[in-house]
Write the structure tokens for this entry.
Amino acid sequence: MSEPENRRIPAEAGVWVFVISDMMVFAIMFASFVYHRSQAPELYAMGSRPLSVGLGLLNTIVLLTGSLFVARGVEAFRIAHFDRSRRLILLGIACGALFVGVKCVEWNDAFVAGLTPLAGDFHMFYFMLTGIHLVHVILASILLIIVRNWKVDPARPAAALIATEAGGIVWHLVDLIWIVLFPLLYLTS
Amino acid sequence: MRLLIVWAVLVAATLASFVIGEDAKHQAMTTAAILAIAFFKARLVLQEFMEVNTAPILLRVITDAWVLGVGALLIAVPFVASR
Amino acid sequence: MNTIHRICIWLGLFGLVLMGAGMMPLMHSVPPPDPLLGPDAVKAFYIDNSLGIRIGALLVLAGSPGFILFYVPLSSMMARMEPRSWELAAIQLICGTFAVIPFMFFTLLLIAAAYRPDQAALTIQALADVGWLGLFVPTIFAVPQMFAIGAAVLRDRSDVPIFPRWIGYFNFCDAILFQTSMFVAVFKSGPFAWNGILAFWIPFTMFFWWFIIMMWAMLRALKKHPVYAGSN
């Protein structure tokens, strides 16, 4: 396969070092969850029953919609529609906040029902995996806030574009992880 | 426009996996189908939103390897490891 | 300046080697003993290998100041980046130092656990528990430390940056990986327990590679970077 001229790496290579390592770490977490589940499927099935699939589904749609806003925001930034880009990225940040809110409701329901990380193996994984993912959502939202306030420096126009693309990629990474996490925890246990 | 179509496909695939999950309970094939849909979605996010489709070959190979490798692993583990 | 930097970096590596020698052949603690062991098994672990654990713990303790020596030139380099990252350099040094302090508690408590062969098993178990929890839970200090390094590296906009930019992203990866260690407080088995893959193997292996890579990056800067090259 020959490489066409216009192939370019989104943002910069270092961002991808981060993204791929994070994906590998989550792959290990997914695999250890699936392995432990295969050793005691009934236990995990019982553990997952009180989970609200509806809230999980809602959060999946929220993140996907956030990804759409952010992707269009990056697109707008590239053609120098900065105000439009900032508006779209703000909508992405709002999706992040909404995700955190829904997750709080979900966790609160679990705590009220007496389900803590010690309630069983399923709940250990459930709280750890969704918790680590939640930290990612919060960090990615903070990153988008930073990107949104980035002043375009005329002397170094590339820096702002790299920052915006990097913010978008990290946001999509968080979406990507949730896309696997949602069926693992909510649909197939 | 293209991004909007991608988003619609992703939402539709999410709903499809939800419906499959509701219909049949806890069968190995259902699980495999739901995970296959999930990794299809993951690849779509990588290709379209993260713009891997216009990136150098190396990045595409690495991300596709992740999708295929991790996807196959998660689908295969219950068949191999269960006693 | 250059010479002191080099001495600090190599003494840092020496400290790391001492710690490895203490942990692995002497304390038999890679991976740490299973948190699910009962009091009698725990007592056997610490008393049967009493001398090895005490000498090993002393080596770990003796090696731990090496990290502080290693962090000083690192902070010094961060403060020389353009723009100057004074605040981030301070965060790196202080959080890094806080992440070293646990080694003091860890070694003292494990020495105490192995100290009296006729000690009650439950007491030995309690001492060892505090020791291991005290090593893992405070690793959270490494998170702001590594985020600070990463931010400083990415902020560096001089024509020849002190560290290559991927070092910055690499530090972010490591910061993410260190989040999970503190949850040993909640779990006794599985990947998040203190002998599990996500609490022990991944963070500590990555820390080893982080150390080696940062060492390479610092030595490279000392050799090639205009700020350092040619000065002694």
